[in-house]
Design goal:
Layout lengths: L2 H15 L16 E4 L2 E5 L12 H14 L7 H5 L2 H14 L3 E5 L2 H12 L5 E5 L4 H10 L2 E5 L4 H17 L6 E6 L11 H10 L3 E5 L14 H4 L8 E5 L9 E5 L1 H10 L1 H4 L6 H15 L1 H20 L11 E7 L1 H13 L2 E2 L2 E2 L9 E6 L6 H18 L2
Parallel strand pairs: 2-11, 4-5, 4-6, 6-7, 7-8
Antiparallel strand pairs: 1-2, 3-9, 8-9, 10-13, 12-13
Helix pairs in contact: 2-12, 4-12, 5-6, 7-8, 12-13, 13-15, 14-15
The structure holds pyridoxal-5'-phosphate (PLP).
Length: about 400
């Protein structure tokens, strides 16, 4: 073995010894409530395909049509010659869906955060993020060179303390510094909701900007299913509305919705947009179909079905229903090895629930992360609840 590979093997061994080794599991079926892994069919509670659109006929047909008309690849960055019609249709559909002046899509949600935060902030600026915000926002904040401050999870008093400090720093310098607050609306690993009304009030009080990542809320909350900001009536007061096209919308890609100036600036300054080949046209067409479906009457009934499943599951496992319900239901175990053992025990019963460990969550905060979708039946949900009960009893988790 080469010295290079020896070094890497030593690092992998250390990851393995901590019970943190991750491996890819090959899935031989489309995304859905039943997935095929290793020749077995598993009941799937791991996907973020909340409305069951990833394998929906309308999205597949839109993707196929886009392939027929626009081919397999986009050929270049959108700023060179790759700005194919399906991307423009998607941007327009998104802006209309979210009720904003404009929208811009990126190849992934991750690339969206990287491109947007680095376009907006530099080393003289300040970014204040929730402790549990997604890795893409943390990475973007670091890459931007801005001063990074972290406030305790969903803690507005701590956010205000950080804002007071930022404001003082800003006023003591002669140049104008910008302050950006970034949070998720529904948190990806805990399923809890950010106090967006209070955060909006604070950012206005201190003259900061606000970026809200609605990755796990787009399509799921609000009268028009735009997200939690809509449900809480603060959409118009959030400067930068971010999300992904890869979860409830059933396709792939990321987006920013906001003012025309924001979008024009991103086209000129977001490096992950500028220096990257446009996604395949089929992805954009599928996402457009996903949005159309979400706002249709079928979307409305899928939405209702999803929340029925959530209520059923929470009462079956004796969870208190929270003020803002979520499709993400974490079952906190703590110890990494115990979480993996619990996931293995479920898999032995043909149920797939992922064990989430460091670095996705803090050390010692390992958990089973159950996600429910509109495609699950009431019986599926009961099967999981019973299996969890049995696992709990046998493992004392
Ligand atoms: C999944 C996720 C992203 C990244 O989106 P992708 O389209 O998967 O790259 C960003 N933020 C949050 C909170 C997420 O859960």
């Amino acid at each position: 073995m080469s010295a290079f590979d020896q070094e890497l093997q030593a690092r992998l061994n250390s990851i393995r010894e901590q019970g943190l080794l991750r491996e890819l599991r090959r899935v031989d079926s489309p995304q859905g409530t039943r997935i095929k892994i290793g020749g077995r069919e598993l009941l799937n509670f791991s996907s973020n395909d909340y409305l069951g659109l990833a394998n929906h006929p309308a999205l597949k047909e839109a993707a196929l049509k886009a392939v027929e008309k626009f081919g397999a690849g986009a050929g270049a960055s959108r700023l060179l010659c790759g700005s194919l019609a399906p991307f423009h249709e998607l941007d327009e559909t998104l802006a209309a869906f979210k009720g904003t002046e404009a929208a811009l899509t990126f190849s992934t949600g991750y690339a969206t955060a990287l491109g947007t935060i680095t376009a907006l902030l530099g080393k003289d600026d300040i970014i204040i993020v929730d402790k549990l915000v997604h890795a893409c926002i943390v990475d973007a904040a670091k890459l931007s060179g801005a001063k990074l401050r972290v406030f305790a999870h969903n803690d507005c008093a701590d956010l205000e303390a950080k804002l007071r400090w930022a404001n003082k720093t800003r006023n003591s310098k002669h140049e104008t510094r910008n302050i950006l607050i970034a949070t998720e609306s529904i948190f990806s690993m805990d399923g809890d909701a950010a106090p967006l009304r209070e955060i909006v009030a604070l950012k206005e009080k201190y003259g900061a900007w606000l970026m809200v990542d609605e990755a796990h809320a787009t399509g799921l909350y609000g009268a028009n299913r735009r997200g939690l900001a809509e449900e809480l009536g603060v959409s118009d007061r959030v400067e930068i509305q971010m999300g992904t096209l890869g979860k409830a919308l059933g396709a792939s890609g990321g987006y920013i919705c906001g003012s025309r100036s924001l979008i024009d600036l991103l086209v000129n300054r977001a490096r992950s947009f500028i220096f990257s080949t446009a996604p395949v046209p089929a992805a954009a067409a599928a996402a457009t179909a996903g949005i159309k479906l979400v706002i249709s009457s079928e979307g409305k009934s899928l939405h209702e079905q999803l929340w029925t499943r959530v209520v059923t599951f929470q009462s079956a496992i004796g969870h208190r229903s929270s003020a803002v319900p979520s499709t993400i239901i974490p079952i906190i175990i703590g110890d990494e090895a115990a979480a993996v053992a619990a996931a293995n025990a479920l898999r032995a019963q043909n149920i797939f629930v992922p064990a989430i460990r460091y670095p996705t969550v803090a050390r010692g905060a390992a958990r089973l992360r159950v996600t429910l979708t509109a495609a699950h039946t009431g019986a599926d949900v009961q099967t999981l609840a019973h299996a969890l009960d049995a696992t709990r009893n046998s493992q004392h988790v």
